């Protein structure tokens, strides 16, 4: 759930491509991969490396294609690459692959341990929880520009690199295609993952960090705050789409985190993120996506903002909309975990508004 939004707000120089999505890509995401996306990767949190932050000479191919060309011929309009494309380009020196797997706390899974057991050859581990804002208690919020740059530099990523992000949704697709995985992580990969988390800590404690090789270009219009969402409930400038399940949206299912009210932001509509994917967890075609959104009463001619539980799966909606040409869809970073914990925010359910 962590790869799609991840590339949307800080990675402004090269494309972040993803290929196969996980039904539970729990934070992306947004899409640095945090907030704020799938088809091979998880669409959730590519918020730093977003496809909307791509240079014109770098992009990704459509999912399912068997392209054998290199990054120079990538299209800038398609946010997802196929398994075949990645396999053909995996050894290119300017292609960096990130495993941004993340799981809900109640799943009791450890993404770093699973990365060490099996991952795409050469992939680095991107810690969605670790590379996050340390000034808030909200989960995996986007870090500052400086912190993100320090962490990404520690991973060895430079502005010249093309980045492909995946999570546990992409790995099964890779294996099903008959491609090899690495069953043990190199000491260098583990050291880089550790160095990235340490760099974040140092920045927030005012300490010096190592050489910064990645320059960020934060795009605040892609990340909404609580106050912006409050204002939107009154002015309705944007259609608000919630990626959570219908039961959570309606307020008939308890939230997975304690102390969070059930329900949804007044005026928002529910489009659960799995509706963006087919049975193989691959992003739907443009025609299929258009039909899904229109069925839920979403006008593709008007502005949209997306949210979910913590700002991860909201990036999958943003990814689907990106495929339809809506490349400036903001994600509410704090999402329902922030909204539902406030005492003064209005909450709607299937039966009432409070």
From TrEMBL:
GO cellular component annotations of the record: mitochondrion
Keyword Repeat: yes
Alphabetical keyword list: Repeat, Transferase
Gene Ontology molecular-function annotations: thiosulfate-cyanide sulfurtransferase activity
Keyword Transferase listed: yes
Rhodanese domain sequence ranges: 91-177, 234-348
CDD domains hit by this protein: TST_Repeat_1, TST_Repeat_2
Pfam family, one: Rhodanese
SUPFAM superfamilies reported for this sequence: Rhodanese/Cell cycle control phosphatase
SMART domains (UniProt xref): RHOD
InterPro entries in the cross-refs: Rhodanese-like_dom, Rhodanese-like_dom_sf, Thiosulphate_STrfase_CS, TST/MPST-like
PANTHER family from the UniProt entry: SULFURTRANSFERASE, THIOSULFATE SULFERTANSFERASE
UniProt name for this protein: Sulfurtransferase
Organism: Cynara cardunculus var. scolymus (Globe artichoke)
